[in-house]
Design brief:
Length: about 325
């Protein structure tokens, strides 16, 4: 009779919202978290460039099943544009490719901002992760290939001018949907204003339900030290983990009985009857006795499981989530 092999990784289910520092890629930040927490399963919701800082939601364990909901949510960025200089990458990493003596005034900037809100067409930066014939656009561009990317529709819910600290710079705040490139906004704003421009500073303030109040600096985590692998999170680390369901705040919640929860976990549908049955259709976050059970879809009076969760109550992090 074989014995079950003891894992040397910690079972963690939930979200940690990292305040990513400048100079670190999203994957590098993830690697450092792995060394600190030794999670069994982990991923992040939305890449940030090394030159960007701010909100990088990290999904552990069962929370990885909800990453798409976080990534599909709205994002808020604060960024600084330098006028009169364009670069190949539309940020400070690239070589200068265009210059202009034109410097727009605050009044001129405010006048064109309505053109950059709502559903607009945007050509992504050549130095982006978009695939062209199976290769990343930035790899092709670095190899000297001519890269042409098709325009795509994006949604900018809000674009505000925060300040103009001097004639060469302007600070903006943008609230936008999935697929928006802030670097492309800066590039297109510059050209629309008869100048050119690139991003010199970028900070992400919000991703879906995760905002500034949730962010934990990497230094704080490193000061807490490493967790022993295979022994679970200690109380200090566990207190930083947000519930798996946090990413599902934007979809309706539906409570079911323990019997129905058991059916859903087996992949079976549940008929919704009685006056408490929902009158809508579509995706729902399903709970039973306060515990997240599944992401389901209501269709023709039946609840069908799409994603089923298996949260470990005995895990220290899961216990912390119950107390949150």
């Amino acid at each position: 009779m074989s014995r079950r092999k003891k894992t040397n990784r910690n079972r963690i289910d939930g979200w940690l919202v990292l305040d990513k520092p400048v100079g670190l890629s999203s994957n590098d930040a993830l690697t450092r978290l792995k060394r600190l927490l030794h999670p069994q399963k982990v991923g992040h919701a939305g890449t940030l460039d090394p030159l960007a800082s701010g909100c990088l939601p990290i999904a552990f364990g069962e929370a990885t099943k909800t990453v798409s909901f976080a990534m599909d949510g709205r994002k808020v960025y604060r960024f600084t544009v330098r006028w009169g200089v364009a670069t190949e990458t539309d940020d400070t990493e690239g070589a200068v490719c265009e210059t202009s003596d034109m410097r727009p005034t605050a009044e001129e900037i405010l006048a064109v901002l309505p053109e950059f809100t709502g559903t607009i067409s945007q050509v992504p930066p050549v130095y982006s992760a978009i695939k062209v014939d199976g290769a990343r656009a930035y790899d092709l561009a670095r190899d000297g290939a001519e890269v042409e990317l098709a325009a795509r529709d994006i949604t900018v819910h809000r674009l505000d001018l925060v300040e103009c600290p001097d004639a060469d710079h302007a600070v903006f705040e943008a609230e936008c949907g999935k697929g928006t490139y802030v670097r492309a906004l800066a590039r297109d704003l510059g050209h629309r204003l008869g100048s050119c421009g690139h991003v010199t500073a970028l900070r992400r303030l919000l991703v879906g339900p995760f905002g500034e109040d949730d962010m934990i600096p990497l230094e704080t985590l490193e000061d807490l030290g490493q967790c022993a692998p295979g022994e679970g999170l200690d109380e200090d680390h566990a207190s930083l983990i947000l519930p798996v369901a946090t990413a599902l705040d934007d979809i309706p919640a539906l409570a079911v009985s323990r019997q129905d929860a058991a059916r859903l976990r087996r992949g079976q549908g549940v008929l919704l009857r009685g006056r408490d049955a929902p009158l809508f259709k579509g995706l729902v976050s399903v709970t039973s006795l306060g515990e997240l059970v599944a992401i389901g879809e209501v269709e023709r009076g039946e609840l069908l499981p799409k994603r089923v969760f298996n949260l470990a109550a005995e895990d220290p992090a899961a216990a912390s989530l119950e107390r949150t």
